């Protein structure tokens, strides 16, 4: 069952596209978005739009992680090809997805996004349309006072 707002954020760790183990604390505002596959049309749109908004996320103090069941090598190639500056976490065994309750029964993670702050799930987006999602999530995070943009 997918985690919902108010649930505690799970303790997870996974290698990023550089093979470095990342274990987010989730104390500070964080976005974790699950996507099906590297280098596919919808996933590329979503990743590129998170990258386009990345400076705004960073300025707002929000960390972004993309997660899929692809491996480190696939993530590295995808991040290099799309010039992504945020971590893509490799979850080939679906352990991170399972911790968040994200469906992987099709062999890939269902497109689901979590906004986390103070180690608690604040918002959950399921059945995500990748086009425009990064901006929506940023706006909702700011509206929820999870972070504030410095003018």
Automatic annotation (TrEMBL):
Residues 1-28 are annotated as: Disordered. It comes from the Archaea. Monomer. InterPro entries: AhpC/TSA (IPR000866), Peroxiredoxin_AhpC-typ (IPR024706), Peroxiredoxin_BCP/PrxQ (IPR050924), Thioredoxin-like_sf (IPR036249), Thioredoxin_domain (IPR013766). Keywords: Antioxidant, Disulfide bond, Oxidoreductase, Peroxidase, Redox-active center. Residues 3-151 form the Thioredoxin domain. This is thioredoxin-dependent peroxiredoxin. GO terms for biological process: cell redox homeostasis; cellular response to oxidative stress. Its EC number is 1.11.1.24. The keyword Hydrolase does not apply. Belongs to the peroxiredoxin family. BCP/PrxQ subfamily. It is an enzyme of class 1 (oxidoreductase). CDD domains: PRX_BCP (cd03017). The active site is at residue 43. GO terms for cellular component: cytoplasm. GO terms for molecular function: thioredoxin peroxidase activity. It catalyses: a hydroperoxide + [thioredoxin]-dithiol = an alcohol + [thioredoxin]-disulfide + H2O.
């Amino acid at each position: 069952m997918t985690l919902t707002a108010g649930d505690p954020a799970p303790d997870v760790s996974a290698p990023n596209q550089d093979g470095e183990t990342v274990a987010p604390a989730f104390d500070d505002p964080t976005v974790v978005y699950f996507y099906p596959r590297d280098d596919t049309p919808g996933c590329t749109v979503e990743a590129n739009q998170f990258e386009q908004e990345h400076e705004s996320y960073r300025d707002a103090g929000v960390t972004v992680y993309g997660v899929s069941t692809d491996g480190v090598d696939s993530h590295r190639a995808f991040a290099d090809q799309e010039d992504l500056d945020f971590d893509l976490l490799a979850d080939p065994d679906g352990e991170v997805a399972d911790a968040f309750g994200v469906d992987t029964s099709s062999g890939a993670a269902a497109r689901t996004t979590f906004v986390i702050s103070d180690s608690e799930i604040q918002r959950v987006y399921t059945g995500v349309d990748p086009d425009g999602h990064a901006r929506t999530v940023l706006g909702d995070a700011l509206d929820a006072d999870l972070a504030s943009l410095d003018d």
